[in-house]
């Protein structure tokens, strides 16, 4: 029963917040640039890059990796709620995984985007993984794509 509650709660949070995570191909630049020329941190210059960063944050079990990914519009209350629910699942040995294809990235004008994909939730280590369709939403702020939750 607790597992069902946790899955339902996570699903409601993702749907209500229009959230999720990814498995997109990342682009790498070639040429004469050195490692010092590359920006540190996740690639937030494209919706796919930000979705990949969100997916990696979920997959790592480290909620702090979300800090540079949040849109300004996401309230601290929403962040704290997701962190609490996410933390409980990870503490129980569970995990999240989000996968998407580049073809599932849709831009909406110049400042909004969505990424449709599959969310895989394992409530506890060794338990059956549940699969759900999810859509993550992003907004462009100061030239970077940010996750709206």
Description:
With 149 residues, the chain is of the alpha+beta class. The protein contains three helices and five strands, in the order αααβββββ. The protein has helices at 2-17, 47-60, 76-91, and strands at 95-99, 105-108, 112-122, 130-141, 144-147. A hairpin with a 2-residue loop joins strand 4 and strand 5.
| N-to-C SSE string, H for helix and E for strand | HHHEEEEE
| Main β sheet profile | 5 strands, antiparallel
What amount of the residues lies in strands? 15-25%
Secondary structure tally, helices:
3
* Assembly state (oligomeric): single chain
Topology:
Blueprint: H1 2-17, H2 47-60, H3 76-91, E1 95-99, E2 105-108, E3 112-122, E4 130-141, E5 144-147
Antiparallel strand pairs: 1-3, 2-3, 3-4, 4-5
Brief rundown of the structure:
The protein has helices spanning 2-17, 47-60, 76-91; strands at residues 95-99, 105-108, 112-122, 130-141, 144-147. With 149 residues, the chain is an alpha+beta fold. Strands 1, 2, 3, 4 and 5 form a five-stranded antiparallel β-sheet that branches.
């Amino acid at each position: 029963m607790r597992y069902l509650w946790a899955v339902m709660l996570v699903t409601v949070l993702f749907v209500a917040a229009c959230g999720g995570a990814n498995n997109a191909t990342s682009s790498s630049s070639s040429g004469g640039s050195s490692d010092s020329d590359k920006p540190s941190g996740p690639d937030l210059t494209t919706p796919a890059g930000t979705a990949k960063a969100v997916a990696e944050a979920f997959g790592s079990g480290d909620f702090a990796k979300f800090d540079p990914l949040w849109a300004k519009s996401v309230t601290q209350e929403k962040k704290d709620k997701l962190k609490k629910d996410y933390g409980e699942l990870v503490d129980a040995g569970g995990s999240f995984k989000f996968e998407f294809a580049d073809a599932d990235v849709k831009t909406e004008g110049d400042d909004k985007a969505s990424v449709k994909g599959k969310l895989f939730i394992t409530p506890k280590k060794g338990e059956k993984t549940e699969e759900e369709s999810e859509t993550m939403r992003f907004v462009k702020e100061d030239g970077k794509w940010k996750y709206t939750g």
